[in-house]
Design goal:
The protein is α/β, with parallel strands linked by helices. The protein folds into two domains: 230 residues, P-loop containing nucleotide triphosphate hydrolases (Rossmann fold, 3-Layer(aba) Sandwich), CATH 3.40.50.300; 76 residues, Alpha-Beta Plaits (2-Layer Sandwich). 33% of the residues lie in helices and 28% in strands. It is built from twelve helices and 15 strands. Strands 10-9-3-8-7-6-15 form a seven-stranded mixed β-sheet, sandwiched between helices. A hairpin with a 5-residue loop joins strand 1 and strand 2. The longest helix has 16 residues.
Length: 330
Amino acid sequence: MNDLSGGGPAGLVIETTGLRKEFRGRRGGLRVAVDDLDLAVPAGGVHGFLGPNGSGKTTTIRMLLGLARATGGEMRLFGEPVPRRLPDVIDRVGAVVEAPKFSPHLSGRRNLMLLAGIIGVPASRVHEAVETVGLTGRDGDRFKSYSLGMKQRLAIAATLLKGPDLLILDEPTNGLDPAGIREIRETIRDLGERGVTVLLSSHILAEVQAVCTSATIIANGRLLASGSVADLLAAGDDVHAVEVPDAGLALDALVRADLLARRFDDHTIHVDTVEPATVTRVLAEAGIYLTSMTPLRRDLESVFLEVTAGQALGERSHHQQTAQSDGGVA
């Protein structure tokens, strides 16, 4: 891998300022996919790019890689302005965007060998990449026999052939079963520990919290919060699990009192507050008496709900669609 000292200001590997992308809709209307986004990704570790499907994550990545033209703003990779200087830094960047393309009848290793020949890297890189992503022993199997998780790991291996300093992964665990998700998470965590800067785009809060050292949260193309995961989790209100006879009635009372709360199950509500006594008072005034109230460890779901003023991530994730994009490995 290359020397990261060639990064941007304060060691930033990715930096956008006022980045904007507008689309013309089918009826001629204007849709803003990325809205004056300031994104800063420091060198080293895994940076989560978190937001609901349709929030502008893939569009931002495509602009960084020169696959889409920005409407306005500035972008830099390793301190170099892109897309103008993209050819100067593209060899330092690996990316998996959407579904990768491999020959189904060739083995994983043979696919990587062909790619290594195309991009002009030594065959020894194939062995290193296979070992890094944990496919040793299965690299001789045909690609078509691979599970979705193995296919994603092979795609990551393909990006590692040129020894990138920056790896961009767009929703790498989409469609994977729990075992596949765990394998990809372990691979990503290991890459971050090896010194590769990883930008992990995801709409899954737990995924980002499990592997990322820093994160940026966006919605509707806008920056909502950014910083180290530890700082994001330390800021704001505490989360309490409140058990009540009827969660629906209790939730209505808490929301009317302008408390940030969401239903967990039929008898439990999660409330973000630094004043538990306020929760007790509000419920008592509504004639509802809680069974228990327990402080919970703050997580990214709490942070997200706070910065989006209580919007439900799950509902947005299921009903919004991402902008159309080409898939593959860069």
